[in-house]
Structures are given as C-alpha cells and as structure tokens.
Design a protein that fits this description.
The chain is an alpha/beta fold and 460 residues long. The chain folds into three domains: 210 residues, FAD/NAD(P)-binding domain (3-Layer(bba) Sandwich); 119 residues, FAD/NAD(P)-binding domain (3-Layer(bba) Sandwich), CATH 3.50.50.60; 112 residues, FAD/NAD-linked reductase, C-terminal dimerisation domain (Enolase-like, domain 1, 2-Layer Sandwich). Helix content is 30%, strand content 26%. The chain contains twelve helices and 22 strands. Strands 1, 2, 3, 4, 5, 6 and 17 form a seven-stranded mixed sheet that branches. Strands 8-15-9-10-11 form a five-stranded parallel sheet. Strand 18 and strand 19 form a beta hairpin. Helix 3 packs antiparallel against helix 4 and helix 3 runs parallel beside helix 6. The longest helix is centred in the N-terminal third of the chain and has 24 residues.
Length: 460
C-alpha cells in the first residue's frame, strides 16, 4: 500500500472541500483532496442550479398562460415541449458543472487522490485499498445524499429523488411528491406549471421550513390554489403496479382516493454521507442520529484534529454556509492545535417557489413578553398589486427591551431580495428605528418592509 503524508487531508471535493483546500493553501500548508465520486458540487450537479433552470422554464410557461388580467390575450393554448425543457436544463446544468470541473482540473495532480477514505486513526486514512494517508489534521466534507424511507424502496425505478429528475429526457404526466420542504415545493410547483399532474404529500403540517404558523398558513392557502398540497396527509398505501405507482389516500375533502402516478418523487430531506468513514476508529463520538457533535464556530469535532464542514454536518445545508464552513475548517486544520472561531453570517434561506418563501435570523415563537411581531399583508402592497403578485405575508420580529431586529419569516413576491436586506440589517445589529431611517424608493416591493417595520415600531 502506498504511503502519503500531508498537512491536511480533505475528504470530499464539493463546495466545502474546495473552500477548505483553498484556505489551507492560504495558510502556507500542504493539502490533499480525496474524492471517491464524480467531481462537481451538489449545487451544480443536482441542487440549486438545475432546479432553478427547471423553475425558470416553469415561470415562463406560467407567465405566458396568465396574461389576460393585464388585457393581453395569447391566441391558443400554451404548449410545453418536455423534451426541449429538459434538454435546456441538462445543457445548462452541464455548463455549470463544467465551471467546477475546470477549477478542479487546475489543482495540481499531487494534491488530488481518487478513492473512498476511511479512518484508521484520528489522523490516518486508508483510501480504497491502495493508499494510506498520514495527516496533521483532517477535514470531513463528504456532503449529503437524498434520504429514502425504507418503506418506499420497493417502488424500484418508479421512485426518484431530485438527483434523478435532472436526468429525465422528457416530462412525465403524473408525479406524487412526498415532502413539502424546499426541494419538494420547488420541484412540485415547477412540474405542475409545466403541465405535470402533481400531488404533494407531507406530514405534521410542515411546509417550506416555515416556523411561524400564520406565515405557514398563508403559504399553504396560496399554493393550494395552484396545485394539490396536503402538508398533513393521510396516505393509506403506496404500491408498485407495473410501470406506475398506486397511491391510496384521504383527500383534503375527507374522501378516500386511489390514483396512479408515473413516479414518486421522494423529497424528505438529505442525510450526511458519513457511514463509510468508520468514525469510531478516529475516536469520534457519534450520537443516535449518526452525527458527531462539533463546534459551530470552529468546525472542530471534540478536541480532535478533525473538522467537519458543509452538508456533512447537517447544520445549515446552503452553498454559502458550506463555503464559509469549509474556509473555517481548512484554516483551523492548517493551524491545529491553534484553533480560532470563524465569523458566521446572519442565517438566511430562500425557497424559490412563486411566491417565494424566505427566513432570516431568529423566530421567537410565542414569546410575546420579550418580542413583538410586525406584519405586512401583501394584498394591498402597491408594487405587488401593479405586477399582480399581491399575495403573501411578512412577519418581522424585534426585541421589546432594545428594539433590535432579530428575524423575519415571509411568503411573498421577490422575497429573495427582501430577505437579503433584512439579513444585512441583522448582521449589523440594527434596531427597527435605525432600519426605518434607511431610504425606501417608490414604488417598489421593498416599501412593504417599511410598512412592517412601522407596525413593529408602533408596538415598541
């Protein structure tokens, strides 16, 4: 078996792994990237970029078929060519992946090692059966994979995850989606707008990662007007029937229905890929969840020379967080045992449905003794009415004692832009009154923030 030595061994060459690699080099140390699967990030291959391509096609189809309220009439029905839609999705997806592959290609060959790594000590790895790597420290950046409950695996190739959707050559006719989280809502709505008959089933009422019950209820009502959505579904059985899947369920009108679908899209979340690492050999304590405890500011596991970043730690599964975590983990691994806390940004997330769902910062729950909640109903918001996207709800949360803005949750038009302004305000520790002193142009959707802030200020 070949023997290699390096300052930092990095397991995984995705977003977090590449960020860690660059951080190690900036510290003047040697790094070795170990990758067992294909190069290219989850975001580029099967995540944010291909999903947004499908959503963009869906937006074009939806806009073209809803022009009458503006007095614009398109003659004849809108025709969606599924093969053309998927051809563009895959071509552009491959282009984005190509950018990542180009960056990996530029990494010197002696800094890369192909194969699957497992621990044989806290800082010793075996890669497949060909190489033993002795490192001063290790960064785990193995990413995640779609989770499929065992009860659904008997559906065989009629069961797909988001990774599989972007390999379709054409659009199916009927799809059942299990899981109304980020992936399920985005892909479910997109497929529906492209002419696919969609049913979305959830459990426990969860929807798009929204904690605020009023915002969640507003989102549910909006989406249910467009496609079938039951966040608290009662599914009686799922059964493979030839090349279809039969699903029996209790519908929203409380009647029993039995329907058949071309595919079941499983969108019940992703799980870190840690199983093959043999963490016990590295003396890593693993909880019942299968995850190790780690310091969110340093990325270090216990006091070990092991750091974990990106989707592998199941904390904040977003590309910008994976990049930040990779940088922190790489820098600390390079300087181990001298470990420092890294800067973490204001937490924010966006679900690219229409209307969009967005969250930032803290949700204080029902603690009305210490926090107040400001509200904006988009129904009569000026610019939103102009563009006929006047539906949704925004809640802003602030501390009573200090007036400091602490978080927001919303479903509404162009929420991706609103949530960035709020994230900047949160990171700057601004008060509601300081935010109200900022400029607001007219007429823009951002004026809705001022309405909600004024409502918050009145309560303060």
């Amino acid at each position: 078996m070949r023997e290699l030595k390096t300052d930092v061994a990095i397991i995984g060459a995705g977003t977090a792994g590449l960020a860690a690699y660059r951080a190690v080099l900036r510290e003047g140390k040697q790094a070795l990237l170990i990758e067992g699967g294909p190069y290219g990030t989850t975001c580029a291959r099967v995540g944010c970029m291909p999903s947004k391509l499908l959503i963009a096609a869906a937006h074009a189809a939806h806009t073209a078929s809803h022009t009458e309220p503006f007095g614009i009439h398109v003659d004849g029905p809108i025709r969606v060519e599924g093969r053309e839609v998927m051809a563009r999705v895959k071509a552009e997806r491959d282009r984005f992946v190509g950018f990542v592959l180009d960056s990996v290609e530029n990494i010197p060959a002696e800094h890369k090692l192909l194969g699957y790594a497992r621990f044989v000590g806290s800082n010793v790895l075996e890669v497949d059966a060909h190489t033993r790597v002795q490192a001063h420290a290790v960064v785990i950046a193995t990413g995640s994979t779609a989770f499929v409950p065992p009860s659904f695996r008997e559906l065989g190739d009629r069961l797909v995850v988001n990774d599989d959707v972007f390999e379709w050559n054409d659009l199916p006719k009927r799809v059942a989606v299990f899981g109304p989280g980020v992936i399920g809502l985005e892909l479910g709505q997109a497929l529906s707008r492209l002419g696919v008959d969609v049913r979305i089933f959830g459990v426990s009422g969860s929807l798009g990662g929204i904690n605020d019950p009023q915002v969640r209820q507003a989102a549910k009502k909006i989406f249910q007007k467009e496609f079938y959505l039951d966040p608290d579904a009662r599914v009686l059985h799922t059964k493979r029937m030839g090349d279809e899947v039969e699903i029996k369920y209790i519908a929203l009108d409380n009647t029993e229905r039995t329907e058949r679908f071309d595919y079941v899209l499983m969108a019940t979340g992703r799980r870190p890929m840690l199983a093959g690492l043999d963490l016990a050999q590295a003396r890593v304590n693993v909880a019942d969840s299968g995850l190790p405890a780690f310091n969110k500011l340093t990325m270090q596991i216990d006091a070990l020379p092991i750091f974990i970043a990106g989707d592998a730690n199941a904390d904040l599964p977003f590309l910008h967080e994976a990049s930040d975590e990779g940088h922190i983990a790489g820098r600390n691994a390079a300087n181990f045992p001298h470990v420092k806390a890294g800067q973490r940004r204001a937490p924010l997330s966006v679900v690219f449905t229409e209307p969009q769902i967005a969250t930032v910062g803290l949700y204080p729950g029902h603690d009305k003794s210490h926090y107040v909640t400001g509200t904006l109903d988009f129904t009569n918001q000026g610019r939103s009415r102009v563009i006929l996207e006047n539906h949704g709800l925004l809640h802003i949360y602030a501390e009573k004692e200090t007036g400091r803005f602490v978080g927001a949750q919303m479903v509404g038009p162009r929420a991706e832009h609103l949530v960035h302004l709020l994230a900047w305000a949160l990171q700057q520790k601004m008060t509601v009154h300081e935010m109200l002193a900022m400029p607001f142009y007219h007429p823009v959707i951002e004026e809705g923030l001022r309405t909600a802030l004024r409502d918050t200020a009145r309560q303060l």
